Amino acid sequence: MSIVVQKYGGTSVGTPEKIKNIAEKIISRKEKGDGVVVVVSAMGKTTDLLLEMSKGITKNPHKRELDMLMSTGEQVTITLVAMALHERGHDCISLTGFQAGIQTQGYHTKARIHDIDIEKVNSHLKEGKIVVVAGFQGMNENGDITTLGRGGSDTTAVALAAKLGCSCEIYTDVDGIYTVDPRVFSTARKLDYISYEEMLEMASLGAGVMETRAVEMGQKFNVPIYVALSMEDWPGTYIKGMDMTMEKRAITGLSISDKDLMVTVNHIKYDTKNIAYIFNTLAKMDVNVDMISQTAPVNGFVNLSFTAPKLDENTILNIMKDLKGKLNDIEVEIERDITKLSVVGIGMRSQSGVAAKMFDIFAENDISFKQVTTSEIRISYTISTKDRNKAVEVVATEFDL
Ligand code: ADP
Ligand code: ASP
Ligand code: MG
What we know:
There is one protein chain. It is built from 11 helices and 20 strands. It is of the alpha/beta class. The protein has a domain of 171 residues: Carbamate kinase. It has an 8-stranded mixed β-sheet, sandwiched between helices. The protein has a 4-stranded antiparallel β-sheet with strand order 13-18-20-19, sandwiched between helices. Strands 15-16-14-17 form a 4-stranded antiparallel β-sheet, covered by helices on one side. A hairpin with a 6-residue loop joins β15 and β16. The chain is globular and about 75 Å long. Aspartic acid binds next to α5.
């Protein structure tokens, strides 16, 4: 029996009507003779609503309780999907993350999947049942429910596919991966395929269509991933390893992210131990720092800027308070209206001139940037959020995206 993991995102299970609709899609796959594991997200904006509810009680909920609360969203969906399948005469079972054997490690609200005990899922599949698993959740070594970070149902799906040795289909509200988020640049093109490497960069730089860790896991375990529309049968996009048939485009896509803030620490006494101390403190609190820039020492002092998720602002503010006690005379500034714009393409490895063209485009359009970082296959700029739409338009147009 060949097996497939299908994942349906929040919009695709947003109403009872939509749940009935995806039940038909699941059944038609089962009727082809495949073993089907279904991973679902919370309905519509449920996770956001649950977070809002907690804010009505406290500004600082214990993260264990927050995980407990957020995990309920997916639990509602698995039962409704199972009921819709039963109603249509199909044998199936709903499982929470824990019941599906998903073991996690790490911090509450951003735990990682450590392993999956796949026995239970396998035995239900062997009995011919459709297995419906709650995405986004697992259980840690203390027996507590943990969640995997926003968008984490993608990770649940790819991890299950890796463990089952099968492919993973991600059904969502967009009919594939586009060169640019179609909500931001309406004339973006749909890609037939994209390499794991490029998708990983695009996802980590803001293309929220796939969760970053899901792509990472797909690449590590070579899981073929197909992203398509849940409501219609239109061709989607394959995410796969690079092969000879794939064109090495200089620029495959453009990602933007408004999710980071920029912290500038001025007047740090220049000592590499001080810089190491700052980043070690951030790392210990699990703050994921992205772009870093530092001025050359002047009179023995340097200024340092870095970007980090807005979601970690409270943690960052506490760390900065602590730093002010340890490193005398530092001044801290936080800029929230920043956008990260990145271009990604595997062809950058062999083609030069992309950075030069980007600098030209920014100069010609009077767009200033605060930081630039590069990797082998991407270039990222921090710009003011007010310039965001204009920057996307001109860069996407110039690179024919
Ligand atoms: P789901 O709830 O199904 O997980 P998401 O909202 O997480 O769906 O992801 C789908 C959304 O991702 C789309 O509506 C689209 O606006 C956005 N998106 C961002 N970048 C891209 C891109 N490059 N290609 C396609 N969609 C993108
Ligand atoms: N429901 C979770 C969220 O909204 C997980 C997911 O949708 O993938 O982030
Ligand atoms: Mg998603």
